Amino acid sequence: MKPICKSATDGKKTRKLLGLCRRTLIIKATCVGCCIFLALSNLLAQEVYSLQHCIEYAVKNNQNLKKTRYDREKAAYARKEVLGALLPQVSSSANLNNNLKKAKFIMPNFINSMLPPDAQDPDASKYMTIEMGMAYNANAGVALNQQIVNFSLFNALEIAKTAENMAALGAESSEEDVIAQTATLFYAIQSTEYAVKQMEKSIELMDRMQETIEANYANGLVKKVDVDRLKVNFVNLTTQKTAIENVAEVQKNLLKFQMGLDINQLMRIEPINLSLLEQRVEMATLRPFFVEAQTPYLLVMKKQEMVRLQRKSALYENLPTLSLMFNYQYNGVSDQFFRGETNYWYPTSVIGLSLRIPVFSGFSRQSKIRQNSVELLKAEEDAAMLKQSLNMAYRNARIKLEDTRHTIALQRDNQKLAEEVLQITDNNFALGISSMSDVLNASQSLVQAQMSYANALNDYMKAYIELKKADGSIRDLVAEK
């Protein structure tokens, strides 16, 4: 009977142990499922950013662009400030005084001399003191001043308008720089992530090769050193892929900073569309180039206009100015704080013209005019030099784009050839024709070809952005779909 009882007891323990294992497996499976669900949820929650989305966000939130908008707003207020000086200037004033010690006036003692000779005092003082004014006086009034002829002020308004236009052009130039920098970072991330995907394909291929060679090793068909060499190559390839992924994350952080986006926010970039990129590049090469339409050239022309206006300002300092003046006041005086018999109030007003004519300034104005003339010559040289520079930048951008287009075509063919070589070498190794060294060399050549193609792709897209910026069509990136 004991053996029977013992087996029954063991059976119960076994069933309990199996039930515990099943519950443990269920709990683990549930935890793994939750982790996978959360990971997928986070992945789906990440917004996929297109180039247009990144540029639009950067234009709105880039901090440097916000500063240029403030400069533009400041220039508009500066123009309004000058305009306000041309309008009537009205001011009011009021005074209340308590004359603790009244002013005194000393004059000859004419009263004693006016008396008859018999009534005159021979000991009288030659001068007498008369107290002037009253104990309290007050006044309130308003004054108006209007510029009638003031060429310097009129010219200052033109200078302020030109400065406002320069601020607007400066904001446009900064915006174009931000668009170009954002697009460059965006394309750099796309090319880096493209390199990661190519590396993943190589890793998958190496993983399948590793399974095959391990099976062959188990059957005694290959040596252990071949298995180890393939494992080392696989680990190196995986490490290299991780390093490239980290590069992509660094580039994303730079893009977030450029856009004004929170660094901690997750970001996914849409994958590259090579055929669409080729179409855009083809359209960019057909665009005509006009240096006069470039924002930097328009800005330097405005600077030249500013120098001309500053020279006019120096000339206008030699011209007369005419202004209108009007003043009205209401005055009151009293010895008993504006009450009683001594309380008097009376109005006063005046209107007139003020003419100011410069005569001689010690030749300082002439020297100032000559300085502005020299600045104007420098501004004209700057404009000519910038025109040449913009033409050179455009031509160089076209040459660079054509060069990178040729390079990327070669690297694309080279990558395909490396893939074919690796496939053939792998098949030959399975047949015993090729060695493991041949397989490893072919795999390394493929990885090198993939990285070279990714670098050529990045250079190609960078050259495309440079051409768009050089020909003044960088804003078209916002409308590209």
Give the CATH H-level superfamily of the domain at 51-86 and 151-318 and 361-478. Outer membrane efflux proteins (OEP)
What would you say the CATH architecture of the domain at 51-86 and 151-318 and 361-478 is? Up-down Bundle
CATH level 1 class label of the domain at 51-86 and 151-318 and 361-478: Mainly Alpha
Order of helices and strands: HEHHEEHEEHHEHHEEHH
The count of DSSP E runs of length 2 or more, i.e. the number of strands, is 8
The CATH topology of the domain at 51-86 and 151-318 and 361-478 corresponds to Outer membrane efflux proteins (OEP)
| Estimated structural class | alpha+beta
Task: Walk me through what this model shows.
- This protein has 481 residues and is α+β, with helices and mostly antiparallel strands.
- It has a domain at 51-86 and 151-318 and 361-478: Outer membrane efflux proteins (OEP) (Up-down Bundle).
- Helix content is 68%, strand content 14%.
- A four-stranded antiparallel β-sheet has the order 2-5-7-8.
- Helix 3 packs antiparallel against helix 5, helix 5 runs antiparallel to helix 6 and helix 5 (151-218) packs antiparallel against helix 8.
